[in-house]
């Protein structure tokens, strides 16, 4: 499939994408169109073992044709129907130019990522009425998105400059968890997560019935870190010797980080989820697990703010074990996923109520901008769907793009949270982050608003009681962005 001849920027864009390899597109033979939740968890990296075969002029994911995938989403996002032919052409161009390997097509969820890559690609090719700077920015954004999406499946355009949270191979990380695991506390915390009243609301928000949680392993690790809390042992009700106990765990925490080969800039999280060989491991340092299970021992017999934050944190991490909303394959864990992390983190926030002060403030800013400038509540969309939308990613993203637009949704999926960009990302993702962070996403969002959408935005702000002074500043911001970036 050749790039469209009539487009004057095709040669410029071609240089960033690589040499076009023609219309030959690799695919894979039939697989389930939508595996069950349990099946999705179990598939693991076995998808790489399937034998590929060639398909003429047809993109295929498992047993789903890309064209049929797009058609199935048209009712939720009419823009897909309007641009379907261009999206299919762009998809073929991207796959050919990146010489994408068959493994990419084994996972149906990768079709969502291709939809967004193709949407950005098409926008970059359309230069009508745009300044040279805008064209250059859109071309760079589309190219970096495609490189990030295909990089782990491309021999000609591999990912470069990848930062990793750990220098260990996946199986070695499991062994490290097991080395430091407190098995008795792990069993108690797992029971608490799946049966306690404190977790009931979280399960209800995710629309998960009791006993129907996706499988995960709970790892309470006998480690600690000074930044987790300063209150250990300070209360008169704390058990004797608790301060010394915590100090010893701090030493073990430093040893754990060294053995994990973490980045020198990294710190030990209060809790986290690692996906290794298709399994979810919910990890939490021992002192924090004890605050949940036996708060009086740690001197947390009250229901203060700090204890509430820790409870919200474990609810947040539990949500990560129950599905994943990233618009790419997250089952084959031999591949890292750098898309949709803002949305996946926000999904966990929605069901946990985690404190903004100790969470991802940049995620709050992005979600707030979506609501402010387009009147869309991602929260409401998430709580209306099973697993916060993770049970059917394609449906969630089609519904979001139906309100927000394909390009805006693609940009939101490509924007990494600051913490990931700093510690866990390839260069192409960091380049996207440089364009879209610190107000960049808001500005790109404003730039694409029609005059009608601008007036609707201003009307919503006025109806919401925003002062005239702030209204004037908002209008000035919109005018300046469109003038400077257009």
Q: Any overview of this molecule?
A:
With 486 residues, this protein is mainly α. The protein is built from 24 helices and seven strands. The chain has helices at 10-17, 37-42, 66-73, 78-82, 84-97, 110-125, 132-150, 170-180, 183-195, 200-205, 242-260, 286-293, 295-298, 305-321, 341-352, 361-374, 378-383, 393-404, 406-414, 418-423, 427-436, 440-447, 451-463, 468-485; strands spanning 24-27, 53-56, 60-61, 64-65, 217-221, 272-276, 279-285. A three-stranded mixed beta sheet has the order 5-7-6, with helices on both faces. Strands 1-2 form a two-stranded antiparallel ribbon. Helix 23 (451-463) runs antiparallel to helix 24.
Which labels suit this protein?
486 residues; mainly alpha; two-stranded antiparallel sheet; 7 strands; 54% helix; 6% strand; globular
Blueprint (SSEs and pairs):
Elements (H helix, E strand, L loop, with lengths): L9 H8 L6 E4 L9 H6 L10 E4 L3 E2 L2 E2 H8 L4 H5 L1 H14 L12 H16 L6 H19 L19 H11 L2 H13 L4 H6 L11 E5 L20 H19 L11 E5 L2 E7 H8 L1 H4 L6 H17 L19 H12 L8 H14 L3 H6 L9 H12 L1 H9 L3 H6 L3 H10 L3 H8 L3 H13 L4 H18 L1
Parallel strand pairs: 5-7
Antiparallel strand pairs: 1-2, 3-4, 6-7
Quick description:
By secondary structure, the protein is mainly alpha-helical.
Q: Helical segment tally?
A: 24
Strand arrangement in the largest pleated sheet? 5-7-6
The value of Rg in angstroms is 24 Å
- If you average the pLDDT, what whole number results? 83
| Uncertain spans | 1-55
The dominant shape is globular
Q: What is the CA-CA span between the terminal residues?
A: 30 Å
Structural class: mainly alpha
User: What's the main sheet like?
Assistant: 3 strands, mixed
Number of strands: 7
Q: How much beta, percentage-wise?
A: 5-15%
Helix content: 40-55%
């Amino acid at each position: 499939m050749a790039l469209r001849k009539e487009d004057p920027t095709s040669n410029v864009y071609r240089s960033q994408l690589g040499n076009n390899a023609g219309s030959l597109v690799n695919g894979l033979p039939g697989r389930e169109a939508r595996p069950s939740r349990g099946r999705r968890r179990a598939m693991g990296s076995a998808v790489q073992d399937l034998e590929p075969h060639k398909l003429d002029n047809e993109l295929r994911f498992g047993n789903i044709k890309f064209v049929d995938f797009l058609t199935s989403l048209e009712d939720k996002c009419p823009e897909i129907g309007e641009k379907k032919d261009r999206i299919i052409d762009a998809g073929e161009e991207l796959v050919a130019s990146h010489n994408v390997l068959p493994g990419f097509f084994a996972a149906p969820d990768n079709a969502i990522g291709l939809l967004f890559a193709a949407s950005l690609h098409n926008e970059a090719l359309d230069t009508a009425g745009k300044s040279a700077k805008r064209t250059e920015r859109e071309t760079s954004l589309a190219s970096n998105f495609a490189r990030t999406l295909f990089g782990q499946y491309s021999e000609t355009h591999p990912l470069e400059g990848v930062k990793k949270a750990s220098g260990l191979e996946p199986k070695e990380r499991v062994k490290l968890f097991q080395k430091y695991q407190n098995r008795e506390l792990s069993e108690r915390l797992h029971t608490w997560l799946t049966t306690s009243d404190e977790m009931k609301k979280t399960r209800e928000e995710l629309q998960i019935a009791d006993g129907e949680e996706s499988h995960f392993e709970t790892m309470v690790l006998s480690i600690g870190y000074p930044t987790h809390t300063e209150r250990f042992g300070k209360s008169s009700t704390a058990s004797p010797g608790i301060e010394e106990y915590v100090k010893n765990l701090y030493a073990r925490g430093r040893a754990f980080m060294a053995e994990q080969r973490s980045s020198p800039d990294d710190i030990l999280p209060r809790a986290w989820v690692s996906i290794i060989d298709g399994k979810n491991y919910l990890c939490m340092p021992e002192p924090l697990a004890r605050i949940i299970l036996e708060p009086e021992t740690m001197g947390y017999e009250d229901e203060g703010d700090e204890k509430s934050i820790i409870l919200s944190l474990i609810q947040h991490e539990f949500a990560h074990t129950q599905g994943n909303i990233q618009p790419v394959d997250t089952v084959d864990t031999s591949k890292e996923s750098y898309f949709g992390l803002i949305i996946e983190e926000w999904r966990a926030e929605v069901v946990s109520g985690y404190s903004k002060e100790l969470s991802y403030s940049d995620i709050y800013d992005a979600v707030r901008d979506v609501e402010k400038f387009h009147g869309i509540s991602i929260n409401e969309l998430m709580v209306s769907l099973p697993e916060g939308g993770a049970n059917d990613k394609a449906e969630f993203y089609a519904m979001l793009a139906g309100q927000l637009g394909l390009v805006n949704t693609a940009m939101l999926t490509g924007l990494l949270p600051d913490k990931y960009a700093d510690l866990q990302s390839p260069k192409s993702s960091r380049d996207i982050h440089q364009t879209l962070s610190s107000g960049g996403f808001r500005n790109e969002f404003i730039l694409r608003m029609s005059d009608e959408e601008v007036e609707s935005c201003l009307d919503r702000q006025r109806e919401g009681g925003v002062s005239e002074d702030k209204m004037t500043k908002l209008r000035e911001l919109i005018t300046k962005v469109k003038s400077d970036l257009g």
